[in-house]
């Protein structure tokens, strides 16, 4: 069942050498395209990086050399208003995509596309991993693959035959994210300590990379300082002005 595949997801960072064929990639992308899209704009593009030198450079720029060089397929999942600009020009109309709303639409479209692609890949027995590290060097990566105005990478996505079988990391309980009629933050006082115990047990007992940590500790450490502060300036250069 699809639900079982979804609930068994675990990131894969070590792949066998097998490369995905063009037919396999096309099948996965076609399935991914059937994700919902706001106003049917389909504001996304995928750059399939097959050139070994570009893969190597992409691995360096994203701080993920093992994945980028070892995966069966490497994709850059991009927000894209350039194609929509061409579509509008065909109709003799100017395009406006510099508003914050347009940015939200494109990032949402990419997220839905990527998750469909991940689910399609996992249904075929492949493993996947999202690579947020591509946002470490957005300018250089955009130049590496020739992204024009209106197009930027949101994250990478690697796909391949797993060399490892990671345990599924426990998610927050449904009660922590599901609010009925009104947002209820009072329940966090009970639910978050309970979840910390669950995560702590998972980290200490998983088959590799054991550690002593809780979810709230990790989040507090991660969110106590800003990250990737150059992103807004980069997006402005790409035409997203946050109007």
Written description of the protein model:
It holds the Pfam family Nitroreductase. InterPro entries: Flavin_OxRdtase_Frp, Nitroreductase, Nitroreductase-like. Residues 7-160 form the Nitroreductase domain. This is Oxygen-insensitive NADPH nitroreductase. Belongs to the flavin oxidoreductase frp family. By secondary structure, the protein is an alpha+beta fold. It folds into two domains: 2-167 and 227-237, NADH Oxidase (3-Layer(aba) Sandwich); 174-219, no CATH class. 46% of the residues lie in helices and 12% in strands. It is built from eleven helices and four strands, in the order H-H-E-H-H-E-H-H-E-H-E-H-H-H-H. It has helices spanning 2-7, 22-32, 52-62, 65-70, 82-90, 100-123, 138-144, 174-177, 188-205, 215-223, 231-237, and strands at 44-48, 73-80, 127-131, 151-160. A four-stranded antiparallel beta sheet has the order 1-2-4-3, sandwiched between helices. Helix 2 packs across helix 6 (100-123). The radius of gyration is 20 Å and the shape is globular. 27% of the residues are buried. The mean pLDDT is 95.
């Amino acid at each position: 069942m699809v639900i079982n595949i979804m609930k068994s997801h675990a990131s894969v960072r070590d792949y066998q050498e097998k490369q995905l064929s063009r037919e396999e990639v096309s099948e996965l992308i076609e399935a991914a395209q059937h994700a919902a899209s706001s106003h049917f704009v389909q504001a996304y593009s995928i750059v399939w990086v097959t050139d070994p030198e570009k893969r190597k450079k992409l691995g360096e720029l994203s701080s993920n050399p093992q994945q980028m060089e070892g995966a069966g397929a490497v994709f850059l999942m991009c927000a894209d208003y350039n194609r929509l600009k061409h579509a509008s020009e065909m109709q003799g109309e100017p395009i406006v995509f510099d508003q914050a709303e347009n940015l939200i639409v494109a990032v949402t479209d990419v997220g839905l596309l990527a998750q469909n692609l991940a689910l399609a890949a996992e249904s075929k027995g492949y493993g996947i991993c999202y690579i947020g590290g591509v946002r470490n060097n957005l300018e250089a990566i955009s130049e590496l693959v020739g992204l024009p105005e209106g197009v930027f990478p949101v994250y990478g996505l690697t796909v391949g035959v797993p060399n490892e079988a990671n345990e599924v990391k426990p998610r927050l309980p449904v009660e922590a994210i599901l609010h009925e009629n009104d947002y209820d933050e009072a329940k966090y006082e009970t639910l978050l300590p309970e979840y910390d115990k669950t995560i702590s047990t998972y980290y200490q007992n998983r088959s590799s990379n054991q550690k002593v940590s809780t979810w709230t500790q990790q989040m507090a450490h991660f969110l106590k300082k800003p990250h990737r502060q150059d992103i807004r300036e980069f997006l402005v250069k790409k035409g997203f002005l946050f109007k």
